[in-house]
Protein: NIPSNAP family containing protein
Organism: Sulfitobacter donghicola DSW-25 = KCTC 12864 = JCM 14565
Amino acid sequence: MITCTLRYEIDPNQVAAFEVYAKAWIHLVNKLGGTHHGYHLPHEGPNDIAFCHFSFPSLADYEVYRKNMWDDPECLRAYAHAKETNCIRRFDRSFTRPVLTGATVDELGL
């Protein structure tokens, strides 16, 4: 499994517009085969930074999603919304391999 993390710099005057965009992409990622872990909008601290995390079984599956999203009318409408509202100033994308299960220190041999 790979997880994509997006760090957004958003317009603090367009948080509501960004939240609309976020809700659309939660639906879209899930529709196109991923598992969305949600968006995290500003609350305390910087008022222009937001994050989202979503996973795919593999990088190859993510690449299929990236290809398919450009042919999906809903995805194109979500992108158009972001462009029209200028709610996103910039973003950075990174990939990680999540560790999702824990173990006791005895099980780990610590």
Summary: The mean pLDDT is 96. The domain at 2-96 is CATH 3.30.70.100 (Alpha-Beta Plaits). The chain has one domain: 2-96. The beta strands are 2-10, 35-40, 49-56, 88-96.
